[in-house]
Amino acid sequence: MAHALRGRSAVVGIGTAGLGEAPGRTAMELLAQASLAAIADAGLSLADIDGIFAATSSHAFPTLSVAEYLGLRPRFFDGTNIGGASFEMHLLQAALALDAGLCDVALICYGSNQRTASGRLVSMSETQWHEAPYRPRHPITAYALAASRHMHLYGTTRAMLAEVAVAARQWANWNPDAFARGKLSREDVLSSRMISDPLTKYDCCLVTDGGGACVMVRADRARDLKRKPAFLLGAAGAHSHRSIAQMRDLTVTAAAESGPRAFEMAGLALGDVDLVMLYDAFTINTILFLEDLGFCPKGEGGRFVQDGAIAPGGRLAVNTNGGGLSCVHPGMYGMFLIIEAVTQLRGDAGERQLPRCEVALCHGNGGTLSSQVTALLGSAATVTQ
């Protein structure tokens, strides 16, 4: 039986700013511009916002900074930061606050000028004492360990990993907002510079600027606003470790816990999902999450993605915006999973629009495969059945 929170709140506005490169703009400016765009998209005003949910890699007290910059005095706020999965968790937290009447209009927001401010990857993953002697390069060392272990146990190959990057690029080529477009073959991925064995340059996400935001309200109000609402059907999170050295099994993430709980809350099954948005910081992520969420058995993810299975025209639509590998990845990517899911549910994705999209799964990842949050969004048809 579905949870009482199912369908009681919805995303009614989305916005982005400075995707790719935004020279001269700060992280807060990008966050604010995306927030204003999302509020306008919902047909609301800044004065309507009385709930703030934010996490950034630039601000120690994100909700304080956001409220001050936007000139808001929110009734409810939460700055939970579990890395890139924060924003999927914020969907659930905002739904709880809205349902309890603690706020009426919730803003979930993020911004980073990571690319133009530093020109290189900035990691929030502090080295743990038991890892320090090995001088890891975080976060990629951790993901390379997971990839190596998966290859050892299940026969996964670098060519299978490359299929993930190629599929992402094919989707990106249909997305005018994607930062990396153009031809990318499996051979291009395999021959690109090795960064952390077995992961090459094209196995790694982009380093970009970008701001993203969404606005949530209760379902009764959502139906009266100007854009098609995307209803929150279910969401759940799970932790497994902080340091990769403490991960019990490098091939099994806490998505195996968050996924089933989110589906139970939504009263849905895997076969109901039309779109799968996965946090693809590295190609191994997509394979691990497809397995742990149940789309294929453990160990079969590499074979599952072969032959264009998750590319345009494949059997499962995965990361239709191009993902973190080819669309955008400004440090913490989870917000952009939500934005693409809402875009597809509205039918606004242009050339890459799926012929049917009633249920979208967003799966966020934080730290070094540390935090996992699964959220299911649905169209109006999913809450009127």
UniProtKB/TrEMBL annotation:
Transmembrane segments: none annotated. Pfam families: Thiolase_C_1 (PF22691). Residues 237-378 form the Thiolase C-terminal domain. This is Thiolase. It comes from Acidiphilium iwatense.
